[in-house]
Amino acid sequence: MTKRFPTEFFFQVFSLLIAFIIVHTLYITIIRPNADIFLQQESAIMQDDPEYVPQRSFFVVIKDYEQETCFVLMLWALSILGYKGLLAWRQQKLLENDLLKLPDNLPIGPEDTRDLASRLQSIPQQEQNYLLPRALLTAIERFRATRNVQDVSNAARDVCDSEGERMESELSIIRYIAWAIPSVGFIGTVRGIGDALGQAHRAVEGDITGVTSSLGVAFNSTFIALVISIILMFFVHQLQLMQERLVLDCERYIDSRMIRRLKS
């Protein structure tokens, strides 16, 4: 057997690198400069007007390193979700084709298995690795060997079940990212609270600027992390639903277009 090039692994590595470059570039060119300008303006206004109520800025909310890390992880996870979603969509589109190319209501006997196998092996190599052609080819080879319809049904179902388990296990990296994002937010919370406690003596003297700034880091990082996690988990469940539908549709396709037409 020829070894398959680990396309998905390199995609994940390069997508992480590209996500970091994009997010870090936005932070150093747009987000942090605008956040600094806004904070300087707010500080100047408060010095002139002690009763002024400080305003909130989106740039200030997302300016810290924890939020930047969360956005990098979010883009990385979304790129992986997009890759897997596109692959599932292509396999779903394949279900619209008649891969066996048999007339309607024509029974399939053991003498037809060689021709059916050659038809499946004639499709493009990339599509041969999809779930439907692999399950069909396994079912055909099992029918050729055993001529037992129940064995064919079990073989096709086993292929679909194993593919469903494989796709489920491959979602572990995305679930890890979805877990890591709130953890990064909690790290920002701990860092902000620690900095605030370190400046408690200044608050006692009447200067609470440093304490409020550090508490802002704590709450903003947790807020952004939780929002990103909620959004990401929505797309994770949508991808999982798409993959489960793919497996079920493949089982129905094989049952309706092949197994019901087998003649032992």
Distance between the termini: 32 Å
Radius of gyration: 28 Å
Overall geometry: rod-shaped
Binned, the helix content reads: over 70%
Uncertain runs with pLDDT below 50, 5 residues or more? none
Biggest beta sheet summary: none
**Total count of domains:** 1
Summarize model confidence as the mean pLDDT. Answer: 85
Q: So how many helices?
A: 10
| Proportion of beta-strand residues | under 5%
Order of helices and strands: HHHHHHHHHH
Helix-strand category: mainly alpha
Q: Helix and strand layout, with pairings?
A:
Layout lengths: L6 H42 L9 H4 L3 H30 L18 H9 L3 H4 L2 H16 L2 H22 L1 H27 L1 H5 L4 H49 L7
Helix pairs in contact: 1-3, 3-8, 3-10, 4-6, 6-7, 6-10, 7-10, 8-10
Structural summary, described in words:
- With 264 residues, the chain is mainly α.
- The chain has one domain (11-261).
- Helices cover 79% and strands 0% of the residues.
- It has helices at 7-48, 58-61, 65-94, 113-121, 125-128, 131-146, 149-170, 172-198, 200-204, 209-257.
- The chain is rod-shaped, with a radius of gyration of 28 Å.
Identify the notable features of this structure and list them briefly:
mainly alpha, 10 helices, 79% helix
Question: Could you provide a short overview of the structure?
Answer:
The protein is mainly α and 264 residues long. It contains 10 helices and no strands.
